[in-house]
Amino acid sequence: MGLGDLQALFLRSSGFTVMPFKIPFFAMYFLAAILEIVAFIISPVYTVQSSLSRKIVAEVYHSHSLSHAKASKLLDYKPLFTFEESVDLSKKYYATI
User: What's the CA gap between 29 and 22, in Å, rounded?
Assistant: First the structure.
């Protein structure tokens, strides 16, 4: 399970709607590049603070994997909670803030 899958599972279980499709990396990267070019062109007149950049797109689309198998193998790690218990506890915690 990847990080995006975990986030989607948590968001759905918390009542949020998640898009049923992913925007392709190339499209997002191209959009971020266009945004950076426009920001550079208008920078003498207006300062743009955008949260979308090519660096952010590359970091978000990078594959992150979540598995305790390596920690179990190398460090003799044993999780305190099952995956389902962890999701339930997280939902309870985020409901309090």
Answer: 13
Count other C-beta atoms under 10 Å from residue 57's C-beta: 20
pLDDT tens for residues 22-31?
Answer: 888 899 999 9
Calpha distance 1→82 (Å, rounded): 14
C-alpha separations of 38 from 29, 58, 59 in Å: 14, 19, 22
49 φ, ψ to 5°?
-110, 95
pTM for the full predicted model: 0.54
Distance between first and last Cα of the chain? 27
Q: Which of 4, 12, 14, 19 is nearest to 90 (CA)?
A: 14
